[in-house]
Design goal:
This protein has a six-stranded mixed sheet. With 194 residues, the protein is an alpha/beta fold. The chain contains five helices and eight strands, in the order αββββαβαβαββα. It is globular, with a radius of gyration of 18 Å. The chain has one domain: Glutaredoxin.
Length: 194
């Protein structure tokens, strides 16, 4: 296929994706949000409630990160630094993982992460939000919460997986001949001790 023909076809696919995204936003606007508990998390400064994570914002984006044991969760988190300052101009943003706060701090410092982190270790938060598998393992993803007076509502969530929209690296690899092939994310242990 000629380059110009392939490029035109790819642009058609991108327009279809943009149309699907518009329909997804329309569907999201119709969702009946679910009320959630005001969970307590651990931080190096002490316990903090979910309600406090909103700060001055009405909306909160919370990442369900599997912790330092997951190289792909680390890859996704590396990408948040670049957008963090822009995201927090619109909504609060925090990364939650099962790691103890001291371990989170070590990893964040080693990776240069600027975003806040909280630990859900010892709580039912991940399971209650649907980010524990049937065998008890953790799963990565994102939940969006909205503050409505004293209530906390979850308005949307989705799981993460290689190739998703939450890590720009996959989209760069999609433009390479052969895509990502057998590429693997760097282990977090290669940058810091746990």
């Amino acid at each position: 296929m000629k380059y110009s023909d392939a490029n035109a076809r790819l642009n058609e696919f991108r327009q279809q994706i943009a149309g699907i995204r518009a329909r997804m936003r329309e569907t999201l606007a119709e969702v009946d949000a679910e009320q959630v508990s005001d969970y307590e998390f651990a931080t190096p400064e002490g316990p903090v409630r979910l309600s406090a994570l909103f700060g001055r914002h009405q909306d909160l984006i919370l990442i369900h990160n599997m912790g330092a044991s997951c190289s792909y969760c680390t890859l996704w988190a590396d990408g948040y630094n670049g957008v963090h300052r822009h995201v927090v101009s619109r909504a609060a943003f925090v990364v939650s993982s099962p790691d103890e706060p001291a371990a989170q701090r070590r990893l964040a410092e080693a990776r240069g992460w600027k975003f806040p982190m909280v630990s859900h270790h010892g709580t039912s938060f991940a399971a209650d939000m649907g980010y524990r598998s049937g065998d008890g393992g953790l799963m990565p993803g994102v939940s969006v919460f909205r503050r409505d007076g004293e209530k906390i509502l979850r308005v949307s969530d989705t799981a993460f997986s290689p190739g998703d929209d939450f890590c720009v690296l996959w989209h760069f690899f999609d433009m390479l001949p052969g895509g990502a092939r057998d590429w693997e994310a760097e282990s977090p242990s290669s940058c810091c001790a746990h």
